[in-house]
Each structure stands twice: as structure tokens, then as C-alpha cells.
Design a protein that fits this description.
Chains A, B: Keywords: Acyltransferase, Transferase. Two copies of one chain form a homodimer. In chain A, the strands form two sheets. Chain A has a seven-stranded mixed β-sheet with strand order 1-2-3-5-6-8-7, with helices on both faces. A two-stranded antiparallel ribbon of chain A has the order 4-9. Chain A is built from five helices and nine strands; from the N terminus they run βααββββαβαβαββ. Chain A is of the alpha+beta class and about 170 residues long. The first copy, chain A, is about 20% helix and about 30% strand. The model of chain A has no long low-confidence stretch (mean pLDDT about 90). In chain A, strand 2 and strand 3 form a beta hairpin. Chain A has one domain: Aminopeptidase, CATH 3.40.630.30. Chain A starts with 6 loop residues before the first strand and ends in a 14-residue tail after the last strand. Chain A is globular. The interface between A and B is large, with 38 and 38 residues.
Chain lengths: ~170, ~170
């Protein structure tokens, strides 16, 4: 099987239309749409989405964002890392390695990668070389973080959890 | 209508059983279960969940966690704040003000409150005095944050977004 080609998606109305085939339309897409409509960003600017086309149909996508080191509570030393989310392959195109290809692309930047794994997707992330981190409610607030460490990068140690929440009098 | 009583939920098997009636069983509950089974926390310790009982049935709940100031990128001055999530009222008990009562309880600590609002819940949060923040993908990573500012607390200014992500050669 040839490697599928990963494309950085452009901000335009065609992309937004393609997004309607995917499940999770959230604030990232809405913000893109608004900025496009209000000419805050240009048509065809580069978006934080990457995808795979099958013919001219977008069949897989992910959002990948470089997070500044000041927001980094996962990696040691603290550094810029990539947050990966909205990984999705359209139903009829699953089982062809498109999800794997996108995740491998994210890893190819050689920055640490973090994602919030859906329930029952642990097997997929472990297969991709990601590790579950020890859940820290203060940092993770209900998320299920899986991370990938490039060579030389370690987990960031977290101070013990405070649970001193005293209800008001 | 009398004000419903808000209880801090105890960590025990009864609470975990009640949780099965709610939609979103996530890592917070799983971590509670594990810690309970492995005796890392004691039976009947206080959990970060608060709820409302109707008779002896848990019918509404939320998770409320005090987040340390070092993780605060929402409020000025940076400070400890409360993250509210997993707000849910069981279907037959909706429309009785249980959700409002829980959110008001969160506000009564007089700390800033932040939540990641579900799509189409904007009206509820605005009614509760929360405000939408300007979406910053680096900080918000796909979330839809709504926040409540106590008196004297302001939005934290964010540095302009970097979108300098260059694919590897």
C-alpha cells in the first residue's frame, strides 16, 4: 500500500463544507468560519487541520496545534509541544491506515505530542507509541491524556494533588 | 420551591453505582474507582463531585475542582479558580432548577469558575452569568470556555496566537 499523502488544509468554504461530513464540529471550525466570513483571515490561509483526500473527497482529518512552552505541564524539560485532536476517519475509509498516517505525520515534527484519548481508544494510541500519563485532575480536568515522547524528553513531574476544597460557610 | 440541597459526594461503591445512571463516565470516575479498589483513598473520602439527591437517588451532579494559580490562563490577576465539568441532571428531573442550583453553589465559593460549554448550551451559561471568552486555540485546544468572574477579577490578556507551524522537511 502506498503511503497516503497528508495535506495541510486551507481555510476556505470548500474545506468548511467537507467538515460537515465529520462528527465533531466544534469551536475550532466555528472560529475558522467566522474569521473567514469576517475577512479576519484570508481565503486559503493555512489552517491547523491536516487531512487525507481520496480523489477529491476529504476522508480523514486531525487538528494539530503547536502549544507554547508556557502551557506545558506534560513534558520535561518544558517545551513547545503539539496538541492533536479531532482525529477522525470517515466510516467507509477506515482500516486503511489513514489514522495511523496522520498520527505518524504529527510525530514527524519531532516535538512531543499530546492528545485527549477517547474511551476505548487506548489500544490505538498504545500501538502508535503513545503512553497514558498518571491522571492529575488539576491539570487534566477530566481529560484522558496520552502523550508521545521524542528521544530525550521525559514526563514532567507533578506536585501532589491538593484536594483542600472547603465549601463556603 | 425550596432550594435543593447540594451534597458533596463521598467516594464509595454506592456513589460509583449511582454514576452509572449518568451519561459521561470518564477518567475522573475511573480513577476514583481504581483508587477505591486499591485502597489508595479511603471509602467515604470526599470526592470532587457534588450532587443533588431526590429521595435517596442521585439525580444531578457536577465535578468541581480547584485549579492552582500556576495553571490559570483565564483570569487577571492569575489565581486559583474552579473548573466545573460533568454537569448533568437526569432526564426525568430536568426543569426543576437542579442545574442552576449546582452552578450557583460553584459560584458561592467566590472563586472564578471556568467550564467547557457543550454546543448549544450557551443560553444556559449566559443566564447563569457566565461569559464566553475569545477563543485562543493554544490555550483552549478545541474547548468552548465559559467563565464567571467574581467582583474584581478580569479576563487575562492573551499574547497573540502563533501559527508558525512549519511542516518538517
Amino acid at each position: 500500500m502506498t503511503q497516503p499523502e497528508i495535506k495541510r488544509l486551507l481555510v476556505n468554504f470548500k474545506t468548511l463544507e467537507e467538515f460537515q461530513n465529520f462528527k465533531e464540529v466544534g469551536v475550532q471550525e466555528l472560529s475558522m468560519k467566522e474569521e473567514l466570513q469576517e475577512n479576519i483571515i484570508e481565503n486559503d490561509s493555512e489552517s491547523p487541520f491536516y487531512g487525507i483526500y481520496y480523489g477529491d473527497r476529504l476522508v480523514a482529518r486531525m487538528c494539530l496545534y503547536k502549544i507554547d512552552a508556557k502551557f506545558d505541564f506534560y513534558f520535561e524539560p518544558p517545551q513547545n509541544y503539539l496538541e492533536l485532536w479531532k482525529l477522525e476517519v470517515l466510516e467507509p475509509y477506515r482500516g486503511r491506515g489513514f489514522g495511523e498516517a496522520l498520527v505518524n505525520y504529527a510525530k514527524s515534527f519531532n516535538l512531543p505530542v499530546k492528545t485527549n484519548a477517547r474511551q476505548r481508544s487506548d489500544y490505538f494510541w498504545e500501538k502508535m507509541g503513545f503512553e497514558n500519563v498518571t491522571y492529575n485532575p488539576e491539570r487534566d480536568r477530566g481529560e484522558n491524556p496520552y502523550v508521545w515522547y521524542p528521544e530525550g524528553v521525559e514526563p514532567q513531574e507533578q506536585s501532589p494533588v491538593q484536594s483542600d476544597m472547603t465549601p463556603p460557610e
